[in-house]
Specification:
The first copy, chain A, is an alpha/beta fold. Chain A folds into two domains: 4-112 and 198-212, Thiolase/Chalcone synthase (Peroxisomal Thiolase, Chain A, domain 1); 127-191 and 222-366, Peroxisomal Thiolase, Chain A, domain 1. In chain A, 37% of the residues lie in helices and 19% in strands. The first copy, chain A, has 13 helices and ten strands. The first copy, chain A, has helices at 22-35, 58-65, 82-95, 129-144, 148-162, 176-181, 209-212, 234-238, 245-258, 275-284, 293-299, 309-313, 317-332, and strands at residues 4-11, 46-50, 72-77, 101-108, 200-208, 220-229, 267-269, 303-304, 346-353, 358-366. The first copy, chain A, has a ten-stranded mixed β-sheet with strand order 3-2-4-5-1-6-10-9-7-8, sandwiched between helices. In chain A, β2, α2 (58-65) and β3 form a beta-alpha-beta unit. In chain A, α5 (148-162) crosses α10 (275-284). The radius of gyration of chain A is 19 Å and the shape is globular. Chain A starts with a strand and ends with a strand. In chain A, 64% of the residues are buried. At the A-B interface, α2, β3, α3, β6 and α9 of A face α2, β3, α3, β6 and α9 of B. β3 (72-77) of chain A pairs antiparallel with β3 (72-77) of chain B, so a sheet runs across the interface.
Chain lengths: 367, 367
């Protein structure tokens, strides 16, 4: 197996804009990356597009708009973790030796068709994401004594981080009081506990180690991949609300492949679609024992969501996983500027889809 | 790199039906395959869905409907070659060692959103597939003297093959006269020169060689993969109408990877969306010299489109590439029944997307 390097990345500003097409948005991030000239356009073997867009042969369109004639052009989607699903596919193309490089671009518009899930009738009246966020939150509070204040602390931290990220949707710091007093939507979730769908794009360039050798100064390697799908039905996922869960299984696979443990992780991007999801992530990823996630917010040994997470950056579905990978790559290669976490060697990306119906964990490291 | 085996396959009846959902159709082929019990549901590492459907997280839905909880679930599309694009991705997952198995299901309904291409405004008034089919046909006739009768012979051959395929949309043999006298749609294309969009599904199970060793009797290996994307714009593709073309480049890559030449190919499924496309395929794949495709119909040393091709079987977009792989696997493993081509060892799949905007060639072989 060829080792795979994240050789470059670029992210467009995440924003509320809804006039441009998903291709215009995708081209922003793709063009930014190509301007760095790590590779010429002719050296790009595959263009993978990650999006919930309903456009046809969209990867071929994106390739054309970027002026690339790749060998392989394909679009991948799996809702909120489309981005890391695309990374897994790109990794396979390179690790197997079929390709030397893959440009993966994720993009979404705020009015993406991914905002509505019509298939899962088990959701019944609980059709919106906030319904499952609420169930997870109430369950965690009831079972483990997690508090609204602890959830608010997640938001405060991520918004603070986002204030240093010029690409984040929300760049204003907020206080725990502001979160607690923001509009109550359900019990216990308030407006500021929830992320926002938005418009944005992020691109990542995967390279074979050989291809990267004379082009990338501080290569960041993909060393662990874990993924687990449970069910597309909320009812089935919820029956597992305190069980092992897709996230724990995905994490276990990723640590095993990376030959490491949660203790080694220095920095992580976590799927905080709702504040409670970050608290549960601490537990599922093994940073802290089951039930202790609420308290972990107060100590937080791993630097979590340095780019601002989904709460701070917004959630352009197909782009989210790629912007997570981009941030961890920036951190590990020491290029994160004002957001730089000192001395980090191991980084983790945790990307969920629709209420935890599937989870993906990717571990990156520098040698 | 781990060698990859096509360990199993199943195809539903291709038909005009348009009442069922794309998931019902996909589940038909997936369930058929699972009934063979090559693997248990728990042994399936990845479920890849190939379709132009605009449903969200559709691979997760399909996995649930099939009763599988795979690690990886993702949907791939690239219009008419979505199926082989999915095979390329699945191959990467297994060849790299990340997965031991991948169930790839392609499905489409006749009213698929893939039937309309709205993005490519360079098509102008030539928006329909028959417009590009016509341009290719007229160019080939003008440049190389190919005749309408030669194109009709392609249709006769493929319909004859389809008459032995219980899953084909068209199972009635026809004569060259019938083709020549069918309704003229453009000059030179008649109704029977054109394939039909239809409803259908096809599934393929990829396995690592190790996984296949005690489960598959006559393992068929994926030994060559080639792919080339040109442009999503018809105008740009057409400027290359007599040039090297995506197909020739894809074929070259595939032969190189498989360490073989066109001479070794015994059986091939070719992308005959229009009869002229099969004549051009003979040339692009190196079965015969440029310009000699029309005459090759009369000799046809390679057994072409034994399942009936797209002309005979119909074209359920996301399923087509997989049904091609399924047929070549059946042929190479000696399981093609009434359609069996004797003594074949090397097989080829050739799958195009939208007017040749991208081409994929996959070479399979038995040891």
């Amino acid at each position: 197996m060829h080792r795979v390097v994240v050789g470059d990345y670029a992210t467009s500003g995440f924003r509320k804009e809804d006039l441009k097409s998903v291709f215009d948005i995708a081209t922003e991030a793709g063009s930014l990356l190509l301007k760095h000239q790590i590779l010429s356009r002719g050296e790009i073997d595959a263009v993978i597009f990650s999006s919930c867009s309903s456009d046809q042969y969209s990867a071929s369109i994106l390739a054309e708009m970027l002026g690339i004639k790749p060998k392989i052009a394909l679009r991948i989607d799996n809702l909120c973790n489309s981005g890391t699903s695309a990374v897994i596919s790109g990794h396979g193309l390179i690790a197997s030796g079929l390709c030397k490089s893959a440009l993966i671009v994720g993009a979404e518009t705020r009015n993406s068709p991914g905002r509505v899930l019509s298939w899962d009738v088990t959701r019944g009246a609980f059709a919106l994401p906030i319904h499952w966020g609420t169930m997870y939150a109430r369950n965690h509070m009831r079972t483990y004594g997690t508090t609204e204040e602890q959830m608010a602390m997640v938001v405060v931290k991520n918004r603070k981080n986002a204030s240093k990220n010029p690409n984040a949707l929300y760049r204003k710091k907020i206080t725990a009081d502001e979160v607690m007093q923001s509009k109550r939507i359900t019990y216990p979730l308030k407006l500021l506990d929830c992320s926002s769908l938005c418009t944005g794009a992020s691109a990542v360039l995967l390279l074979s180690e050989t291809m990267a050798s004379d082009k990338v100064e501080n290569p960041v390697y993909v060393t662990g991949i874990g993924a687990q799908t449970n069910s597309a039905s909320l009812a089935k996922v919820m029956s597992d609300i305190n069980g092992t869960g897709t996230s724990k299984l995905a994490a276990r696979q990723a640590y095993k492949m990376a030959k490491t443990t949660p203790k080694s992780i220095d920095v992580a991007e976590l799927h905080d679609a709702f504040s409670i999801m970050e608290i549960m992530a601490y537990e599922d990823l093994g940073f802290v024992q089951r039930g202790m996630g609420g308290k972990y917010v107060e100590q937080n040994e791993v630097a979590t969501n340095p780019r601002g997470g989904i709460l701070g950056c917004g959630h352009p579905l197909g782009a989210t996983g790629l912007s997570q990978v981009a941030e961890i790559t920036a951190q590990l290669s020491g290029s994160a500027g004002r957001r730089q976490v000192k001395g980090c060697k191991y980084g983790l990306v945790y990307n969920l889809s629709a209420a935890g119906t599937s989870a993906i964990v990717v571990i990156l490291r520098v040698d």
